[in-house]
Amino acid sequence: MNKLATLGPKGTYSESAALKYIQSTNSQYEIEYFGSIKKVLNSVGVSSDIAVLPIENFSEGYVSLVLDHLIDSDLSIVSELLLPIQFSFVSDTADLTAIDRLFVQFVAKGQCSEYIDGLDNTQIITTQSNIESLNRVLQEAGNCAAIVPSGSFDPTTFKHVVENVNDYKNNQTRFLALSKYRSQVDDVQANTHWKTSLVVFDDHDRPGLLAEVLTSFASRQVNLTSIISRPTKIEFGQYNFLIDVQGHYREQAVAEAIDEINKIAKVKNMGSYPAAKVHVTIAS
Ligand SMILES: O=C(O)C(=O)C[C@]1(C(=O)O)C=C[C@@H](O)C=C1
Predict the structure, then answer these.
(1) What are the ACT domain coordinates in residue numbering (predicted)?
(2) Which one of 91, 166, 247, 256 has the fewest CB atoms closer than 10 angstroms to its CB?
């Protein structure tokens, strides 16, 4: 059976995204859980065939660990998923001044910053996953607390629970399914809203280079959904541009734009995949 790697232990948002991906493909996968995002990424093509991981949060932006791995590796993006994300604060005391340790996943921390800022004299201990945060607060004695996914715990276990501690009620995270192999659904199916992700390498920097790259898309009415720069980590001031566009790389306008950009810069095509449906539900 094919193996799918995701962030564990069981119960993480990444696992929910992985289950949603499996359901959408109608295929069978054995899920392998890893204790960190880095370990999930390193497993693809080694012990697993595919990985499902967070790439971008609604308010916090990109998860740079995943973004940089994508830029540097030869993985393809085969699917995109969006999940609503809601956090609860749990502790064994309602006296917030008594709480000396707070367990929170390193990406979740930024999404609950306002609530966390209200805790004085509390040591913030970052974890690798939200379920690690839950397990730590369950295991450790004393006045500790955690930020955990709403619905991941039995509310009767804790004396104090505060729901919806995320800064934005409509909090969402975008996940990607990453594979060593290009998507098998490479054919441009009608009625599908495709997205294509590209990396443009700026190794011969000159005035107007980025403007020319953008013009290649704009002149063909190809819509960009995201553009982000990441340092190459080779030389200060040198960047890779990750560009997401609407459309499949086999569609004429996108293919022509890529060909044109290829003449002035290096382009890496990370694949085309059906765009995730945007959640409009506002969390109460
Ligand atoms: O810890 C989890 O539950 C995860 O799946 C990780 C993760 C992330 O790293 O972005 C996923 C969704 C939320 O944005 C917060 C945490």
Answers:
(1) 198-272
(2) 256
| In this structure, CATH architecture of domain 87-162 | 3-Layer(aba) Sandwich (3.40)
**Cα 66 to averaged position of ligand 1 atoms, centre (Å):** 12
pLDDT at 145: 98
Pairing verdict, β 61-62 and 76-84: unpaired
For the segment 226-238, what is each residue's pLDDT rounded down to a tens digit? 999 999 998 888 8
* pLDDT confidence bin for 141, thresholds 50/70/90: confident
The pLDDT tens digits for 189-211 are 667 899 999 999 977 778 899 99
Find out whether the beta carbon of 14 lies less than 6 Å from any atom of ligand 1: yes
Tell me which amino acid residue 208 is.
G
Structure tokens given for 138: 């369950």
Predicted ipTM of the assembly? 0.96
Question: Does the C-beta of 7 come closer than 6 Å to ligand 1?
Answer: yes
**Helices marked H in 118-251 — which ranges?**
130-139, 209-218
What's the rounded mean pLDDT across residues 142-149? 96
154: its two tokens: 């039995």
Q: Are 202 and 241 in contact (CB under 8 A)?
A: yes
Angle ∠(82,165,104) on CA atoms, nearest 5: 80
Domain 195-270 is in which class?
alpha beta
Type and span of the H or E element at 199: strand 194-201
Residues 98-136: b if buried by 16+ CB within 10 A, e if exposed: ebebbbbbebbbebbeebbeebeebeeeebbbbbbbbbb
CATH 3.30.360.10 describes domain 2-85+172-179: no
Provide the token pair at 71: 């830029």
Q: Kindly give the number of the ligand 1 atom that is closest to the alpha carbon of 173.
A: 14
Q: 4 in helix, strand or coil?
A: strand
